[in-house]
Design goal:
There is one protein chain. The protein has four domains: 22-135, 3-Layer(aba) Sandwich (Rossmann fold), CATH 3.40.50; 160-326, Rossmann fold, CATH 3.40.50.300; 329-402, Orthogonal Bundle (Helicase, Ruva Protein, domain 3); 410-469, Orthogonal Bundle (Arc Repressor Mutant, subunit A), CATH 1.10.10. 46% of the residues lie in helices and 14% in strands. It is built from 20 helices and 16 strands. The protein has helices at residues 30-42, 53-63, 79-89, 104-113, 125-135, 160-173, 189-198, 217-225, 242-245, 261-273, 299-304, 310-316, 333-348, 357-365, 371-385, 393-402, 410-428, 433-440, 444-453, 458-469; strands at residues 22-26, 46-50, 67-71, 95-99, 117-120, 149-151, 155-157, 179-183, 207-211, 250-254, 275-276, 285-286, 290-295, 319-323, 354-355, 390-391. The chain has a five-stranded parallel sheet, with helices on both faces. A five-stranded parallel sheet has the order 9-10-13-8-14. The radius of gyration is 29 Å and the shape is elongated. The relative contact order is 0.09.
Length: 470
């Protein structure tokens, strides 16, 4: 909602009243400006006017409109040039074109340049209001008359770039072909992997993910391939590896670029033969697993630097998919906000909150270095700290400023590594604290303190070990 302010020069009377959305009208015909302004004000919109393209660019900076309606034929700067200039600086600002001398080529060109509608003069009042309502259905973003596309549980989009990616993912889901997902941290690579699994014939079987960079090399081998009882100090029971646990389903190898070279050789052998040999075993066992891998790193550069095996790279890189950063798919931010708000409300059993239009504008234009993961954190913070049903711009700014993007503090990073390490040690020792403490190089008292700090119960791992042994 807009607060009342003194009218600026070139702004119609009444446009300062509280309105749901701001419309900038651009035309060098003052009578047309007056008529269209009257119609739009009566329909409940705040109206700002400009008599030329140059004047319009200044008004955009001053008033931050939600929509621009411009005449095509004007002196000095015509509508096409204005449209191009607007989208050079703000590609999400919707533009509607008007013309009394319209030709089909003009409409086609305007559409290609990014105009959302092309209306001919004399303009019908009902048609104009209908087009404005359609475009401004989601304030602060390029509107779309179609509902957002959904793939899997957590992937929602309106952008053409994501729609193309999801079409590729749907086609790839039907087969067992190996998929490689690249993208920045926090873009949703694991969510895409889960969605591919859920759409595949393997959906009834397990989807198991492992972060290859979060587990030390000596433990990662056991995690992936399993180990036999007595294979090493502390291995007092047989342990089933993740390849066997995912048999019939999908194994997601996250941050595959961080896998040590020694393990890369063993992984390549498994992908070639689809047999795993547990640590300490003399025989291999067949596995039926689909592999989806992901990384934020540039594996081509890693291959050139000798840090990643070229033969493994090509074995994994069969169907490459790239998750774009959130700043590359800004059209998806409003539906994602709506989805995460609904999810938060459902989880708490409370009423769903909404972002104010200017808060949506602000979030759509933000940098989002932490991508979707950062967006989720901002929504959680805003909904927790906002008492009312509408989240204001001030709260959105505070949440985005306070949100530390995707970078962990040194303490948090150490804690995360330590917890993952303890989980791995407990798994391979099936919860035997004495053996786990010996592997970790700690006495039992210190080890118990570490477990308590991270909320880990050895009994849960003992039950799994007994299950594996039977």
């Amino acid at each position: 909602m807009l607060s009342q302010q003194p009218a600026r020069e070139g702004q119609d009377a009444g446009a300062t009243a509280e309105r749901s959305a701001r419309v900038l009208l651009v035309d060098d015909d003052s009578d047309m400006l007056a008529l269209l302004s009257l119609w739009l004000r009566k329909a409940g919109f705040a109206v700002v006017t400009a008599g030329s393209g140059r004047d319009a660019l200044a008004r955009i900076g001053e008033n931050a409109p939600h929509l621009v309606i411009t005449d095509l034929f004007m002196d000095e700067m015509d509508g096409m040039a204005l449209l191009t200039e607007i989208h050079r600086h703000n590609p999400l600002l919707p533009v509607v074109m008007l013309s009394g001398q319209a030709r089909i080529p003009d409409a086609v060109k305007a559409t290609h340049l990014g105009s959302l509608a092309f209306l001919t003069k004399p303009v019908d009042r009902n048609d104009l209001i209908a087009q404005v309502n359609r475009v401004l259905r989601v304030p602060g973003a390029r509107a779309d008359t179609t509902p957002p596309t959904r793939f899997g549980e957590d992937i929602i989009c309106r952008s053409a770039r994501m729609a193309e990616l999801l079409e590729q993912a749907e086609m790839g889901a039907d087969s067992d072909i190996t998929v490689f997902i690249s993208g920045e941290t926090g873009t949703g690579k694991e969510a895409l992997a889960k969605a591919i699994h859920a759409a595949s014939p393997r959906r009834a079987a397990a989807f198991i993910g492992v972060n290859c960079g979060a587990i030390p090399e000596q433990l990662l081998e056991s995690e992936l391939f399993g180990h036999e009882k007595g294979a090493f100090t502390g291995a007092n029971t047989r342990h089933e590896g993740l390849f066997q646990a995912a048999n019939g389903g999908t194994l997601f190898l996250d941050e595959i670029g961080d896998m040590p070279l020694g393990l890369q050789v063993k992984l390549l052998r498994v992908l070639q033969d689809f047999e795993v040999r547990p640590v300490g075993s003399t025989r291999s066992m067949p596995v039926n697993v689909r592999i989806i891998s992901a990384t934020h790193a540039n594996l081509e550069e890693a291959v050139e630097a000798g840090e990643f095996r070229e033969d493994l790279y090509y074995r994994l890189h069969v169907v490459p998919m790239h998750m774009p950063g959130l700043s590359e798919r800004r059209e998806d931010i409003p539906p994602l906000l709506d989805y995460f708000l609904a999810r938060h409300a459902e989880r708490l059993g409370s009423g769903k909150k909404h972002f104010a239009p200017d808060a949506i504008e602000y979030l759509v234009a933000a940098r989002w270095p932490g991508n979707v993961r950062q967006l989720i954190n901002v929504v959680e913070l805003c909904t927790t700290l906002t008492k009312g049903d509408v989240i204001p711009l001030t709260m959105a700014k505070r949440a985005l400023r306070d949100e530390p993007a995707d970078m962990l503090t040194l303490k948090d990073a150490k804690d995360e590594f330590e917890r993952n390490y303890l989980i791995s040690v407990l798994r391979i020792t099936s919860g035997n604290v004495a053996n786990a403490a010996r592997i970790a190089g700690r006495n039992r008292t210190e080890f118990y303190k570490l477990l308590n700090q991270h909320g880990l119960d050895p009994a849960a791992f003992r039950a799994q070990g007994e299950k594996d042994e039977t």
